[in-house]
Design brief:
mainly beta; 13-stranded mixed β-sheet
């Protein structure tokens, strides 16, 4: 049996092919997540389209029964809500009603001139080497004065079929300009504080799998499309 979740649904009448925008996800990654290096480990799931990295669906455990769900289309849409775990795993599609969808203007496009991706030597983990790149400020004096951190990405082997997973705007905009980093599913992602051995927002890959799942947004709150008209 196929399931469909509708969050905060309100009735509206339209021709089906024109009343909604569908986002397709073909991979789901399970990560061990720590907000800081001293936090407890929790589960996080990231859903992606391996051929389109402009949008992601991220879920963090809220409690034993529910996920905190965060949908982001970097072209202009955000949504945050809560969803019970059982319904999510059963559902083929999730409809985000306009009441929990907001438009998003990306203020970081002009910041790309301040950042660079840098490919590092491969990183050794458990006796194997993995591609490793970072995103950091390209002005050392300002970086030191402001104590800007560095974003690290270590890439799982044999996953070059997947575009880079860059779920925050600065990294995504910089990738569109440079295209100088390897494809692949992140094995590890974390932020490193400036000149400290402290880390935040740390993700460690447990497993990934192919899926077929959709997020659906009604046309009247497809802000990415509305903005471009």
């Amino acid at each position: 049996m196929k399931y469909k979740i509708v969050l905060f649904l309100s009735l509206f009448i339209c021709i089906p092919s024109f009343c909604q925008k569908k986002y397709f996800f073909d991979y789901m990654m399970e990560y061990d997540f720590k907000y800081t290096d001293t936090s407890k480990v929790s589960k996080a799931y990231i859903l992606t389209n391996s051929k389109d990295n402009s949008y992601t669906l991220t879920m963090h455990e809220k409690d034993s029964l529910n996920f905190k769900l965060y949908f982001s289309d970097l072209n202009g849409i955000l949504s945050r809500t809560t969803l019970d775990k059982g319904s999510f795993f059963k559902a083929e599609s999730i409809t985000l009603n306009c009441g929990i969808v907001s438009g998003y203007y990306n203020p970081f496009k002009g910041q790309t001139k301040k950042y660079n991706f840098i490919n590092k030597p491969d990183t050794l983990i458990d006796g194997e080497y993995y591609p490793h790149y970072i995103l950091k400020w390209n002005n050392p004096k300002r970086e030191r004065r402001k104590k800007f951190g560095t974003a690290h990405f270590i890439i799982e082997k044999n996953t070059s079929f997947h575009l880079p997973l860059l779920d925050y705007p600065t990294a995504y905009e910089e990738w569109k300009l440079e295209r100088n980093i390897p494809n692949g599913i992140p094995k590890e992602m974390f932020m490193e504080e400036y000149l400290k051995k402290k880390y935040s927002r740390s993700y460690k890959l447990k497993q990934f799998a192919k899926i077929n799942k959709y997020v659906i947004i009604p046309a009247e709150c497809d802000y990415a499309n509305i903005k471009n008209k």
